[in-house]
Amino acid sequence: MTAQEQYVEFGIEREQYAIRIQDIHEIIKMQDITHIPGVMPYVKGVINLRGKIVPVLSLRDLFGMEEQTYTKQTRIVVVNHAVDTVGIIVDRVSKVTTFNDIQAPQGRFGGLDGRLFTGIGLTSGGLVGILQLEEVLLRD
Amino acid sequence: MLSEYKEVFLEELDEQLQLMDEVIMQLERDCESGEVIQSLFRAAHTLKGSSAAMGFEEMKRLTHRMEHLLDLVRSKERAVTPLMIDLLFRALDNLKLMKEDILKQDCITVDVSACLQALERFDSDAAGAASAGGAEAGASGAVQSQAGAQAVVAASAAVRPELSLSIRLHMKSALEQGLRLSWLCVRLSPDCFIQGARAYVIQTMLTEWGELLLASPDYESIGESVGDAPELTYLYAGTQEPAELAAMAAGLADVAGAHAEAVLLEETEMDYRGTASAAAYSQDTSGLEGALPASAPHIDESAAAAEAPSRQPEPSSSSSAPATPPSAAAKPKAQTIRVSVERLDDLMNLVGELVIDQTRIQQVARTQRRRFQDDSVGELGHIADHLSRIIGDLQESVMKARMLPIEQLMGRFPRMIRDLSRELGKELELVMEGQDTELDRTLIEEIADPLIHLIRNAVDHGLELPEVRERAGKPRQGMLRIKAAHEDNQVVICVEDDGAGIDPARMRSSAVGKGIITQEEADAMGDREAIDLIFRPGFSTAQRVSDVSGRGVGMDIVASHIEKLNGMIDIRSELGRGTTFKIKLPLTLAIIVGLLVKCGGQTLIIPMSNIAEIVRVPVEEIRSVRGQPVVLIRNQVIPVADIRDRFGVPQSNDASKHLPLVIIGSAEKRLALTVDELIGNQEIVIKSLGAYIGKVDGIAGATILGDGSVALILEISAMFAKTAAR
Q: Structure pTM?
C-alpha cells in the first residue's frame, strides 16, 4: 500500500472515516430520497442521479448510530461498487487527504467490526478509519 | 462450412419455411391457383440453391425433389391431390428438422431417405402421366413437329425440354429486344469426369455471352455425372448467329461438340395447345408487332402468365449468391437491414432518458411562465413544445423499429390447427384477423406459448366433434377465430370458438371435487368467478386427457405467463355458444403508460395496462367479508387493498366521503386499490432499482418524474399474491 494514496475524509458524529478517492464517483448534497418499502433498514431509498436510479444508504444506520436529521453539511458520497453506483450518507465531508502511516485494523475500531476497515490512518487530527467498501456495502 | 453465411442462410431458411407452411396450406384450399404453386416452387428453388451453396447435400436433394414435383404441377402435368399435400408437408417437416440440426450442430443428421423415396415414387408416377400427356400434346402440336422436321435436327438425341409459359414469355421479350434465339446442344467429352462442374462452367459462360433461358438438364441435377451421353441442351438468347454460338461453345474445355440452330417462331407461341390461334399466328408471322396483340388474350387467361414475367431464368439465379433469391427481383421488397436487439434496446434507453428530460423541461417552462412574463419565457415554452413533439416522434420511431407484425406468430397457426383437427377428428374453419397488428418483438416471442396453449385448448376442449355439433343443430364445421388489434395503447388478442362453452356448474363441482375450493365457496361463487376457476392451478375440465393438451400444463400456466407480461386475460363463455379468451397486452415492455397516484405523500405508479377501471365509491360501500374488505362493482365482488398498508405509509385522516378506487387486473384476477389521490397518466420509462437493491417484492421498478423525483412502479402480481396470503 503506498502511503501517498489519496483519500476523502468524512465524519460521522465525532469520528473520522475515509474512502479511497478512486472509488468515489462524486459527492453531492442531500437529495430527496424515495423510500422503498421492504428493503434493509439502512437503505434509505433511491435518488435520481442525472437520470440514473441510485440507492442511498446511511452510514449512521449501518454503524448502529442513531439517525439525525440531515443538516446543511450532510452529503451523499457516491461510490462505484462493482456494476452499481451506491450513495452513502455521511454527516459531513472534511477534506482530501493522504496518510503517512496506515496501521492494520485491530479486531475492533471504536465499537465496530475491524473487517469494515482496510486500515487505520494516523493523522495529526487523530485516527481515521479507512473503509473497506466491499464489506460495508455487502452487509446483509 | 461457410460460417459467415450461416446466419444469412438460416434467416432465409426460416423465412422460406414459414412461407412454405402458409403456401402449402393455401394450396390445399385452392389447388388451382398458379400463383400459389409458383411461390411454392420459388421457395423450394431458393432453398435448393442456398442449401447447395452451403453444402447441405440432403437438404438440396429434398428441395430439388420438391421443386421437381412442383414444376410438374406448375406445368399442369400433375394435379394437386391430398396425397401430394401430405407429402409436401412431410417434406417441409423434414426441412424443419434439418434446420434444427443445423442450428444445433452445424450438420444434418435427419434421415430423409424415406421422404425422398416417397417423393421419387410420386415423381415416377408423375413421369408416367407425363409421357401419356406428351403423346397427347404430340398430336395437337403437329405444327411444331412439322416445323422441327423441316429444320432437320442434327444428330442431337436430346429431347427438347418442354417450354413453360414463363419461358415463352421470356423468349418473346428477347425477340422484341432484337436478340436471336437459339437452341444450343453441347456434347461433353466422354472422359470429362466432373460433368456437373463442367456444365456449371458452360452455363456461366452462356449467361456471360447472352441470356440463358433454359438449361436441360440443369447442372444442379447433374450432380457428378450426366451418364453415358453427356449432352446438354440450352435455350439461349443473344446477338450471335447460331453458327457463331456453336463455334464459341465448341471452343470451351471438355466440350466434344456443339451444335446450334435458330429457334423457330412457332416455338415462341404462347399457348402450344391452342391450335386455332397457333395456326393464325403461323400464317401471319410477317411482323411480331402484329402477332403480339393477337396472343395477348392468352396471357390474360392464365393466372400463371401474370406471374411468369417476374420469374428469372433459373440458371442465372442459381449461380448468383444464395442471399438473393430469385424472388428478389419479382417482389419489390422494402429495403431492410438487420440490427441486433441489444442495439435497439440501447436506443430505447436513450430515448427513455430524453422522454424524462422532456417532461422536466416542460415542467420548468410551466413554472417559469407562472413566475415571469418575458419573451424568453415564451420562447422556452415553444422550444419545450417543439422538443416534446420531436421526442415523441423519435420515441415512436424507435418503438416501431422494435415492432413486428403478429403475422410472424400467427403464420404458424394454420398448420398447427390443421394437424390438431385431423388428430382429434374435428372439422373447423380458422379465421385470422389483424395479422398486421404490430407489437414489440420480445412480446411476440413471449406470447407465443400462451397463445398456442389457448388454441389447443379451444380445439381440444372447446369445439365439439362434428356429430355432436350436428346433434346440437350447429354446422359440422366449427369456427376458430384468432383476432389481433390495437386498442388504445394496448394489443388485444382474442381466441374465439363457437364450441360448447364452459359450464359454470361443472366448473364448481369439479373444483370442489379436486379440493381447489370448498363447497361453501362454490355456493357463494357467481358464474363468472366459476368460469375463472379454469385459471386455478391443478384445474382441468377435460374428461378425457388427450394427446393434445394433456401434457400436464394447465391454463394456470397461461395466466401466469400473461401476468408476467403485465397483461390481462378475460374469458367470456356462453354454454352451447362458445368461448372467447381475450388477452390484453402492453405494446412494449420498456416504456409504459402509468397512472400516477398519491398515497401518504408518496407518488406511486400503477401500469395502465393493469388497470381495469377507476371508480369513486362512497366509503360505506366498502364492506367486509370475513375480515377482508370487499366492494361490489357491477355484480362482481372485488377485494379491496390499501396500498398504504403495503408501503407502511401512515393512514391519512381524510374525511372525504368518496374513495377513489383503482381496479387492477392481473391475468384474470381483480383487486381494488384505495389511493389518496389520482394525479393522472403519463408515459414512463421503467428503470430497475439496480443490482444493489435487487428485487423488491411489490415493486416492478422505478421511474424519474418530470420534477426529477423518483417514483416507484407497483408490481401488480405481487399485490395479488399478498392479498391471497392474508
A: 0.50
